[in-house]
Amino acid sequence: MSALAEIRKVATPQELFAAAADEVLQAAKSAVAVRGRFIIALSGGSTPKSLYNLLATNAKNALAWDCTFFFWGDERHVPPTDPESNYKMANEAMLEKIPVSAANIFRVPAENPDAEAAAAEYEQTLQKFFAVEPGQFPQFDLILLGMGPDGHTASLFPGTAALQEKSRLVVANWVEKFKTHRITFTLPLLNAARSVVFLVSGTDKADALKNVLEGDAPGEQYPSKLVRPTDGKLIWLIDRAAASKLN
Fold it and tell me: How many domains does the chain have?
C-alpha cells in the first residue's frame, strides 16, 4: 500500500456514511476556498447511496451547490433510466433533491449503443471541462470509490484490459463475467486526484479488503490495490464488518 493511505475504522455503516459526508464537506470547503469550485466524481453501489441520501437530507448545510460539479467514475452500459444506472441511483438519492443546476451535472452518455464511443465522448467532456490537452490528466478534488467482494473498484475488474491503460482518461472495459462493457475512469485518472476516498462496508468485503491492504497478491488480481494517488490523499473508510479479517 501507498504510504499515503489513511485507514479509518468505524463501528457501523451509519458511522461510515457520516464520516464520508464529513470528508466530502471538508474537501468541498477547501476546494471552493482555494479554487472557487469543487469537482467530485461519484461512485455507484449501495454504500454511496446512503451517503448521497445523507448529503441530500442535510442539503441546506452541505455543499456550495452552485460551485459543485458532479461526474461519475464509472457507469454501466445502460440508459440513464435503467435501474442499473449509477447516474439514476445518484440522481434519485441526491441530485434531484438538492439545489444544483443541471449544467453542473455531467453524466456518462451510456445510452450510446457503442460503448467505446460513449467512453470517448466522456473523455472529451472531461478534457473540455478541465481544459487539459490529450495526454494530460485532470485533477479531481475528490473521487469516491467503492470496492467489490472481488477487489474491483470503479469498473476496473480483476484481469481486465483497462488495468493496463496508461494514456486514456475513460475507457469501455469489457467485463467477461457480466458479458458487457463498463465505462470507467482509468487508473492514471484516479491516481491524479487530490483526494480519493474508498467506502467499504460489510462482511462480504472482508476477504478482499485484507488482500488489498495487507496481502501480497498482485494488483491485477485486486485492482483496488492499484489506486495510489501520485500527489494526493488516499483514505479508506471501513466499518467493523469489512475490517473483520484485518490484523
Answer: 1
